[in-house]
Amino acid sequence: MSYATREALSAFRRSPLLTGLSASMIALALYVVGLFSLATFNLQEALETLEERVEIVAYVLDGTTPDEMELARSELTALSEVLAVRTVSKARALEKARADLPEFQDVLGDLEWNPLPASLEIQLQPGSRTPRAIQRVAEATERYDFVEDVLYGREWVDKLFTLRHIGAITSIGLGAAFAAVAALIIGTAVRIAIYARREEIHVMRLVGARDGFIRQPFLLEGMLTGLVGGILATAIVFLTYLAIQSFLFDLEWLPRSWVALGIGAGGLFGLLASGFAIGRHLREV
Amino acid sequence: MIRFRDVTKEFPRRGAALKDVSFHVPKGQFTFLTGHSGAGKTTALRLVHMADRPTHGEVLVSGFSSLRTSDRDVWKLRRRVGFVFQDFRLLPARTAVENVGFALEVTGTPRKEIREKAHRLLGQVGLSHQAGALVHQLSGGEQQRVAIARALVADPLVLLADEPTGNLDERATRGIIDLFREINAMGMAVVLATHDLELVRASPETHVLELDHGRLAFDSHAQEVA
Question: Where are the beta strands (DSSP E) in chain A?
């Protein structure tokens, strides 16, 4: 085992209170980031569910032949923004209306002729649910002579897109702010740890240790403390998630990649904060 | 070995701690650096250790010049210069033998070699029986012996001591001075800073440098008073 590893590990043994305090501070800082991530992830999920409902419906004139409908279906499917196109015949539209609107059973049940038009239901690719992409597909659909009307809830799509935009900007802004606060707290925790070991650093310099050699155990210790803090934070966020799930409302747990990223961020913050703090300390002494 | 050439050291608020000081400490020499408190003894030792740099002039230590040695390379010099302080500066969480071995750990010496050498050095300063003791379990004199063993373990060319007996009683002081004599007898240069003139008078044949308000007032080799 190298000197740096031995020293970094022995710091946990020699001053468990201080190391525990540092790890707890990091955990609390990352807990806030974790809670924010949980909220952001669930908001994203909710928005995606709403976005999945975005579709364009093109009503066609009576008398449109199945061949014309099929041609339009295959041409629209070929557009890069389009995921799938479904043709709905007049008969199917009536059948669906009867099933979806049981309260109008009397009206829809005794019809002498079918007043509902056939239609094309166009689903969009996940990345193409923006107002501009929807507009493009709607315009391409309107070009067919037999298309009478194209509906997609323009106002609703615009609002959804604005909401997503605000969500993304808030996530980046608040996420960066929380991360900065976490970095500051971690930096302070590491500085306290370095201050507690200033005598050791002084003696190391006295006996001819190179600065790189002095840095190594502190960097490793900072990274380990950060990782422990990251794991602790994940555990507390998970407990909070369970509590919300049990007592308030349904939530999705974070994907594994997000959890790994969070713990990794703890380690990275610890490493960077240590590097910064020890570098500054070495310049000062 | 150690040469000061017209060295002046000024500090921003304190003014000049050393003024135009020149002297030479040859290889294997025992030197007392003496003077009242604030005369500049500690500043002179810090300049030898390159913990500070002269404002003017040059300090040369075993081929290392204060003008040409960069901060990045100071560690090379420090492995050749042992340093002992009045307050020992031992690491309290480590045992005596770990404190001694610490000076070798930072050089990347294999652990087995560190253990052997640290135990040998502790034996040399008469503390074999206290190898496993923590710092607080040792007396002041014993702690200073551990600090001396630590300063010697990397085989330096010169040993600097800044008021090493300042915190010790008379008996422990005698023991430490005898130890420095023994170390010097093995061929290592020793520069011992002290304001205790009794110690200096007890060794009339020893090289003496006396500082007074930052100036070199006396050099027994030069036999002149400034």
Answer: 55-60, 82-88, 119-124, 147-151
Among residues A211, A199, A201, the alpha carbon closest in space to that of B70 is found at A211
CB within 8 Å: A207 and B89: no
* B34-72 per-position pLDDT tens digit: 999 889 999 999 999 999 999 999 999 999 999 999 988
User: Is there a contact between B108 and A14 if contact means CB atoms under 8 Å apart?
Assistant: no
Give yes or no for a contact between A49 and A254, defined as CB atoms under 8 angstroms apart. Answer: no
Q: What is the structure's pLDDT at A1?
A: 65
CA distances for A256 relative to A241, A259, A260, B199, angstroms: 15, 5, 6, 71
Bridge partners, residue B84, by sequence: B161
With CB atoms and an 8 Å threshold, state whether B76 touches A208: yes
pLDDT tens, residue by residue, A47-79: 777 777 778 888 888 888 888 888 888 888 888
Q: Are B91 and A206 in contact (CB < 8 Å)?
A: no
Residues B225/B36, Cβ–Cβ less than 8 Å: no
Pair B29, B54: CB distance under 8 Å: no
First to last CA, chain B: 23
pLDDT given at position B225: 40
Q: Would you say the ipTM is above 0.90?
A: no
Give the number of other Cβ atoms within 10 Å of residue A202's Cβ.
Answer: 12
Non-local (6+) Cβ contacts of A246 within 8 A are: none
The answer to whether residue A157 scores a pLDDT higher than 90 is no
| B75 contacts A208? CB cut-off 8 A | yes
Measured between CB atoms, which of B91, B107, B108 is closest to A199?
Answer: B91
Query: Smallest CA–CA separation between B5 and chain A, in Å?
Result: 24
Neighbouring CB atoms inside 10 A of B73's CB total 13
Reported pTM: 0.67
Pairing of the two strands B158-162 and B81-85:
parallel
pLDDT in tens, A202-231: 888 888 888 888 888 888 888 888 888 889
Residues of B in Cβ contact (< 8 Å) with A207:
78-79, 102-103, 106, 150, 154
